[in-house]
Design brief:
Helix content is 37%, strand content 27%. The radius of gyration is 38 Å and the shape is elongated. A hairpin with a 4-residue loop joins strand 28 (362-367) and strand 29 (372-378). By secondary structure, it is α+β, with helices and mostly antiparallel strands. Residues 456-744 form the ABC transmembrane type-1 domain.
């Protein structure tokens, strides 16, 4: 063949300067791309590690132990000082800032003093009637600041200490005052000396119970305001208590004024029902302690009792309703303590915690909900007699041998323990131990419930139902699209399904909560019929289509016959929904939800797991489909052709050659889809009802870890226990996805090694 002169290929000079520059530039680009890709990968790893360490940084402070040390003022340790005032101490308290203390004595002195120096700031003398003395003391609760003094003439005085802050000249000045909730005049309680006294009440309803062992009277007081004069008038009802039959050491009354608790010196406890004020009834007599009771106090909220004894044991009790509807005082838990007798016990004002001081001088800090001994530390000798806490629980005053010692307490997160986060806890007012998440309430004496189990369960439940729907549909669709569908149709179907992933999840959640959930509730029988009708309709149409004459089947291009299923699916779904009202009327008397609840005992919530399965499954399908389809389509064609050439059917080739080869990619798709389902926020936030319950019932809702963080993080106080537990929830979610992905990668590599040689 002749080559024209103008077609002669010129010689290439690979050593020319231009060629060398081109090679250097290409090498530079390759090096830059390699470095850029490497930096990108390292940056992703660093970003993940930063997230990990930041979550850990917010979580670790919860698990630091408490610390107690002498109080310091201007970098100087506050030394112990003499007890201010005279007489024996009946009660001590501190105000919010722990700058002013109150000491009530048996001489009727109410002494306000500086907690730093012991200097008396103000003394209020109780208005005792002439010739009387103080014979008893009763505290309503620490956070109410109300207490009563029982007198030798059978009368009682009720006091309340309050504090007002002013800022003259820009400096804070705290002014302590004493008020009289029931007036300054003594209240008649009994005709004998009040050697024993119990007091409680608030908001216009109070009760005083006092007297001697043989003569006990109860006085119920109701405050009303005169509409004409504006004066406060007191209405009193007096009732005699039955013979209690035990030698009484101390009495306590619950805030609802319905129960009186009596501690006997022998370790017995009696429970008296005061609901019928004309006829109080002893409902229980219990052996509450194995030795002499030394402390007997109400926990914050007044619903639980704490009992300490000479053996150093401390137990918590509260009323529990049994199967018969009876309220019984029940021992809930014991706390780990020492062997020395418990001398005194102080209750925290805002948390379910308390501190004790024993005969050996050991200070112990406890949290009742978490059932933990946060700290044990020796702070006194063997003659400490009283301890009190500041309202913020950051300071404690200890009376020892006529001196007061001010201590600083650092105890930020006593509510946190393994059992409180992951175990069943017996909360006040509940019939048995439960997993409960309830982080806030309207009242100040609320018991926070921080169990992460309902949230973890809800997360897995939502992911399970979503994957139950999405996995078979996505994988089967990917198999057909990649292996059986003609290329021209595949080029249209695959982008359309992948486009579904671009739908905002907030829109899906909005539609699921406001449209899908009510629709499913109204057409519940039709939904279940649809689940049965669709497979039957598809199989029936496939069978009928196969029986059609070839001239009819050949009218549809090869590979496009799957489109014929679209009207079949639409008609089957429409027919199932259309017969739903009639089916519900015939089978369920017109209300399937009522039938489920009353006849089967299955609770039904409109926003339930079935709604989540459909809505979140719809969101997860594109992820699993796309990766699975790519994995199957990427299987080398010579493997399929070789299998078919050896006589295998297309189905045998798919199941024995294509699927095993693509199994690493399919497994990765499922794991990525599961990670998407576990971490989904907006859909579960808007379509589940956000009820943190543990119930496998498909008709009940749930709350997930991600949704809980989204709901409660904006309202959580920064650095609070609630705030840090939400970060712990995020850390748990992070670690769960990390472990799942790690496990998935290990399995994927093993599958690749096993089937990579095909």
């Amino acid at each position: 063949m002749n080559i024209e002169n103008n077609s002669v290929i010129p010689d290439l000079d690979f050593n020319s300067p231009a060629a060398r520059r081109s090679r250097k530039f290409r090498a530079f680009k390759d090096k830059t791309a390699s470095v850029g890709i490497g930096l990108g990968g390292v940056s992703v790893i660093i970003a993940i590690l930063l997230i990990f360490f930041y979550l850990l940084y917010e979580v670790i402070p919860m698990f630091r132990g408490a610390e107690v040390e002498p109080w310091k003022h201007n970098e100087q340790v506050v030394e112990p000082y003499a007890v201010p005032g005279s007489g024996q101490t009946l009660y001590m308290a501190m105000e919010e800032q722990a700058e002013i203390g109150l000491r009530v004595t048996d001489l009727g002195e109410l002494n306000f003093f500086s907690t730093l120096t012991g200097e008396l700031m103000k003394t209020v003398q109780a208005p005792l009637p002439a010739g009387t003395s103080i014979t008893s003391f009763a505290l309503a609760s620490e956070n109410s600041h109300s207490f009563a003094l029982g007198l030798s003439n059978g009368q009682a005085l009720v006091f309340k200490h309050e504090y007002k802050s002013t800022y003259p000249g820009g400096e804070r000045v705290i002014l302590p005052t004493i008020t009289y909730p029931l007036g300054e005049a003594p209240i008649d309680v009994a005709s004998v000396a009040l050697n024993l006294l119990a007091f409680n009440g608030s908001e216009g309803n109070f009760a005083l119970i006092g007297g001697t062992q043989q003569n006990m009277q109860a006085v119920f007081i109701s405050q009303t305001e005169n509409l004409f004069t504006g004066d406060i008038e007191l209405e009193q009802t007096t009732t005699a208590l039955p013979d209690l039959g035990i030698k009484i050491r101390k009495m306590l009354m619950m805030p609802d004024l319905a129960w009186l608790l009596v501690a006997g010196e022998s370790g017995k406890m009696e429970v008296i029902n005061l609901r019928d004020r004309d006829a109080p009834v002893i409902t229980q007599v219990l052996d509450a302690s194995s030795s002499k009771i030394t402390t007997f106090d109400l926990l914050l909220g007044g619903n639980a009792i704490l009992i300490g004894n000479e053996k150093g044991q401390i137990s918590q009790w509260f009323l529990v309703r049994n199967d018969k509807g009876e309220w019984l005082m029940t021992k809930i838990r014991e706390f780990e303590t020492g062997n020395s007798p418990v001398i005194d016990l102080a209750i925290e004002h805002r948390r379910k915690g308390f501190v004790t001081i024993d005969a050996a001088g050991d200070l112990r800090i406890f949290n009742s909900t978490a059932n933990v001994n946060v700290l044990t530390q020796k702070v006194a000798q063997a003659n400490a007699s009283m301890i009190t806490l500041a309202p913020r629980a950051n300071a404690a005053l200890i009376e020892e041998a006529g001196k007061l010692t001010l201590l600083h307490i650092d105890n930020e997160h006593p509510e946190v323990s393994w059992s409180a986060l992951w175990g069943k806890v017996w909360y006040e007012g509940h019939e048995k131990p439960k997993y409960v998440w309830q982080s806030s309430a309207a009242n100040n004496d609320f018991e926070p419930k921080y169990s992460l189990m309902p949230l973890a369960f809800g997360t897995l439940k939502a992911a399970f139902y979503a994957m139950l729907l999405a996995t078979p549909l996505a994988i089967c669709g990917a198999i057909y699209t990649a292996y059986f569908m003609v290329p021209s149709l595949r080029r249209k179907v695959k982008p359309f399904i992948e486009l579904m992933e671009a739908l905002p999840t907030v829109i899906l959640g909005f539609l699921a909560g406001l449209w899908l959930a009510p629709f499913m509730e109204e057409n519940l029988p039709g939904i279940f019929v649809t689940l049965l009708m669709l497979p039957a309709a598809i199989l029936g149409f496939a069978f009928c289509w196969a029986q059609m004459p070839k001239k009819i089947r050949w009218l549809v291009p090869d590979g496009w016959d799957a489109l014929l299923l679209i009207p079949v699916i639409i008609l089957a779904t429409w027919g199932s929904i259309a017969i739903s009202p009639s089916l519900e009327l015939v089978l369920f008397d017109g209300n399937m939800r009522h039938w489920l609840t009353n006849d089967l005992g299955i609770a039904y919530d409109q926003r339930n797991a079935m709604v989540i399965g459909i809505a979140m499954g719809f969101a997860v399908i594109p992820t699993i489909f796309s990766i699975t389809e790519d994995a199957i389509f990427a299987v080398p064609k010579h493997l399929s052709y070789g299998s078919l050439a050896l006589g295998a059917t297309p189905w045998q080739t798919l199941t024995r050659v294509v699927m095993p080869t693509a199994s690493p990619g399919i497994f990765s798709a499922v794991m990525i889809g599961m990670g998407r389902a576990v971490g989904e926020t907006m859909i579960v936030l808007m379509a589940t009802g956000n009820t943190p319950i543990m119930d496998v019932n498909i008709f009940e809702g749930m709350r997930t870890l991600a949704a809980n963080i989204a709901v409660e993080m904006p309202e959580a106080e920064v650095a609070s226990t609630h705030y840090r537990i939400l970060f712990l929830a995020a850390f748990v979610l992070f670690m769960f996805t990390f472990m799942v992905n790690t496990l998935a990668e290990v399995i994927r590599q093993r599958l690749r090694n096993k089937y990579g040689s095909l």
